[in-house]
């Protein structure tokens, strides 16, 4: 949409959409709220882009996060900044972002053809001559911008079509894999915690040599297969590269070991004549208590006043090092973002033009770039779309 908006300043534009409506993937971003960008300075952007950050230098400086906020504000969408400098529409409705883009397309007389799945292209030497739709219709153009997304959330239309087309054009495709995706763990008892959400936890990943390879602080969610949530999604990027990883969750990161021990002792004094299983209500969410008791191997019916110092120490260790062993990531279809894609070596970073095909550019997730959560990936899509649309007649 942004590529079409910018292209329309110089050219007559046709936007081909395989779905029945535009922006289907935007509808589900940010849990339906659309985290449209991040208010951090651009230096922080490059730190949060995990693949080929400096390929995006021209794009992000051509259309910055401030430009994004200004664009939507001028379109009548009020924005707000939340934790982590994440930017959302004030209404918390992703439809406001989509409607603003569609309104802009219409005002610029862009021809929008929905339900128009592309089957292939006709080539003439090293240029595209026309695009062929699945219904047999041929559309001839002087210039083409391919922005079909990746392989994540295929129900939104991201089914990897663009990778197939680009490969036929001679482009190298870096094998796609899931980025920003939930993790599966080996422990069967994880099912007992399904649906439990935790805030303000310290989330770490260690390798087989007990070396810390990832650390973050924030929210997470237990699922029937493992873990999800913001800290987990960001961590998933490294899981694709390493094996035999374990998760360590500090459930009480605000307390030192001594402070937590004192807190446990205070609770034990409060419930001194109770069974152990009835002494943790002040310390833990209800859903977590049975699992923690099971891991501690302390008899749940044991009276609190009979719990030994060693047993208390074991409980403390579980609270500060709640351990899970990673089996792997969920499938790419469940990823928020696809990693991999068209090799950046074959795209001019200052224009987004193909180095192999004379009248072809790329934008968005189809390119081998991706970032952590926080609005960075949508900004990449908007910036590369803007730059590709700016440069078609240059």
Indicate the mean pLDDT: 95
Proportion in helices: 25-40%
- Biggest beta sheet attributes: 6 strands, antiparallel, barrel
* Class derived from helix and strand content: alpha+beta
- State the strand order across the main sheet: 12-15-14-13-16-17
CATH topology of the largest domain: FAD/NAD(P)-binding domain
% residues in beta strands:
15-25%
Total helix count? 12
Shape: elongated
Low-confidence stretches: none
Q: Which CATH architecture of the largest domain?
A: 3-Layer(bba) Sandwich
Summed up:
By secondary structure, this protein is α+β, with helices and mostly antiparallel strands.
Give the arrangement of secondary structure elements:
Layout: H1 2-7, E1 14-16, H2 24-28, E2 37-38, H3 42-48, E3 49-51, H4 57-62, H5 65-74, E4 79-82, E5 86-89, H6 94-107, E6 111-113, E7 118-124, E8 127-133, E9 138-140, E10 144-146, H7 161-168, E11 173-179, E12 183-185, E13 197-206, E14 212-222, E15 226-228, H8 230-239, E16 246-250, H9 257-270, H10 286-296, H11 309-320, E17 322-329, E18 337-342, E19 360-362, E20 370-371, H12 376-390
Parallel strand pairs: 1-6, 10-19
Antiparallel strand pairs: 2-5, 3-20, 4-5, 7-8, 8-9, 11-18, 12-15, 12-17, 13-14, 13-16, 14-15, 16-17
Describe this entry's structure for a reader.
This protein is an alpha+beta fold and 394 residues long. It folds into two domains: 2-177 and 338-390, 3-Layer(bba) Sandwich (FAD/NAD(P)-binding domain), CATH 3.50.50; 182-330, Orthogonal Bundle (Helicase, Ruva Protein, domain 3), CATH 1.10.8.50. The protein is built from twelve helices and 20 strands. It has helices spanning 2-7, 24-28, 42-48, 57-62, 65-74, 94-107, 161-168, 230-239, 257-270, 286-296, 309-320, 376-390; strands at 14-16, 37-38, 49-51, 79-82, 86-89, 111-113, 118-124, 127-133, 138-140, 144-146, 173-179, 183-185, 197-206, 212-222, 226-228, 246-250, 322-329, 337-342, 360-362, 370-371. A six-stranded antiparallel barrel has the order 12-15-14-13-16-17. It has a three-stranded antiparallel sheet with strand order 2-5-4. Strands 7-8-9 form a three-stranded antiparallel sheet, with no helix packed on it. 39% of the residues are buried. The model has no long low-confidence stretch (mean pLDDT 95).
């Amino acid at each position: 949409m942004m590529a079409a908006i910018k292209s329309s300043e110089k050219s007559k534009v046709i936007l081909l959409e395989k779905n029945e409506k535009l922006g289907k993937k935007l509808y589900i971003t940010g849990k339906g709220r659309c985290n449209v960008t991040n208010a951090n300075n651009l230096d922080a952007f490059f730190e949060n882009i995990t693949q080929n950050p400096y390929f995006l230098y021209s794009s992000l400086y051509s259309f910055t996060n401030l430009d994004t906020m200004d664009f939507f504000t001028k379109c009548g969408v009020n924005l707000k900044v939340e934790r982590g400098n994440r930017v959302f529409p004030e209404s918390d409705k992703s439809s406001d972002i989509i409607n603003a883009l569609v309104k802009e397309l219409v005002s610029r007389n862009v021809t929008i053809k929905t339900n128009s799945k592309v089957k292939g292209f006709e080539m003439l030497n090293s240029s595209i001559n026309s695009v062929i739709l699945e219904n047999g219709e041929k559309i001839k153009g002087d210039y083409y911008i391919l922005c079909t997304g990746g392989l994540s959330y295929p129900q939104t239309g991201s089914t990897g079509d663009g990778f197939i087309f680009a490969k036929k054009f001679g482009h190298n495709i870096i094998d796609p894999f899931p980025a920003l995706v939930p993790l599966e763990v080996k422990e069967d008892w994880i099912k007992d915690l399904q649906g439990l959400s935790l805030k303000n936890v310290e989330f770490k990943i260690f390798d087989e040599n007990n070396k810390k390879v990832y650390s973050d602080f924030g929210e997470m969610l237990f699922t029937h297969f493992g873990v999800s949530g913001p800290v987990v999604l960001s961590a998933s990027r490294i899981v694709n590269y390493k094996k035999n990883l374990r998760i360590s969750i500090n459930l009480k990161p605000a307390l030192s070991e001594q402070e937590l021990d004192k807190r446990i002792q205070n609770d034990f004094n409060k419930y001194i004549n109770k069974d152990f299983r009835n002494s943790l209500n002040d310390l833990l969410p209800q859903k977590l208590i049975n699992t923690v008791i099971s891991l501690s191997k302390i008899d749940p019916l044991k009276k609190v006043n009979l719990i030994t110092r060693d047993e208390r120490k074991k409980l403390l260790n579980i609270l500060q090092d709640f351990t899970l062993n990673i089996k792997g990531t969920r499938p790419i279809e469940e990823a928020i973002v696809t990693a991999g894609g068209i090799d950046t070596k074959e795209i001019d970073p200052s224009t987004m033009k193909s180095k192999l095909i004379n009248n072809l550019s790329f934008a968005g997730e189809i390119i081998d770039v991706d970032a952590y959560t926080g609005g960075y990936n949508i900004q990449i899509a908007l910036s590369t779309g803007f730059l590709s649309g700016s440069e078609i007649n240059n």
